[in-house]
Amino acid sequence: MIVFLDLDGVLVHLQYNPSKRKLIKDFDPECVEILNYLVNYHDAEIVISSCWRRHYPFDDLCNMLELAGVGEVIIDTTGTEDNDLTRGQRILKWLSECDRSEDYLVIDDESAGIIDHIPEEKFIHVSDGWMTNGLRYEHIKPHVRQEWLCPQCQGNLKKKPDTAQGIKHCERCGAGWHILQTSDG
User: Fold this and answer.
1) Cβ of 131: how many Cβ atoms within 10 Å?
2) Contact 156/171 with Cβ under 8 angstroms?
3) Which sequence spans correspond to the domains of the chain?
């Protein structure tokens, strides 16, 4: 799977970054954790569709995101040419040119230029993400099986049970849950 990723309003937002600077420390670690969960769940790779692709060389973007905690899964950007294309058109062009017709998701806080080209089920709309809290678990829930989210804190449950009794532990809070999501105390 490919995840096309916007940054402003998704990993960077006004509540965490009131200065509006684009620095490594300005990536909200909770948003990064949620992105990592989605990427790990789908064994996905990331293509940067954000306008940051026009301001930073690819290697710098990769370094910034890796330092912020995003794994080494960034493979490309949607390019800096074709400024007359909408974001949705650039995504479709990238998929076609790179011969990557497999499943994909688009994560963005803006819907303009996307909803006319990207099917609704492939679009994770972080509505008003810049003004609120960026990417949250409720945004990704339709795209992951719920038994992989901790009922207590919505953190990531390990995919494989830690015990013979089928207990999965949350990577965030450490709570143990049976596969059927009942607490073990």
Assistant:
1) 12
2) yes
3) 2-144, 145-185
- Strand (E) or helix (H) holding 170: none
10: pLDDT strictly greater than 70: yes
Q: How much is the pLDDT for 22? A: 57
CATH 3.40.50 is right for the domain spanning 2-144: yes
Q: Give pLDDT, residue 31.
A: 93
For residues 101 and 122, what is the distance between their CA atoms, to the nearest angstrom? 13
What is the DSSP secondary structure assignment for residue 92, as one 8-state letter?
Answer: H
- Can you give the three-state secondary structure of 90-155, one letter per residue? HHHHHHHHCCCCCCEEEEECCCCCCCCCCCHHHEEECCCCCCCCCCCHHHHHHHCCHHHECCCCCC
**Average of pLDDT values for 4-19?**
84
Q: What is the mean pLDDT of residues 86-106?
A: 91
Distance CA 7, CA 107 (A): 9
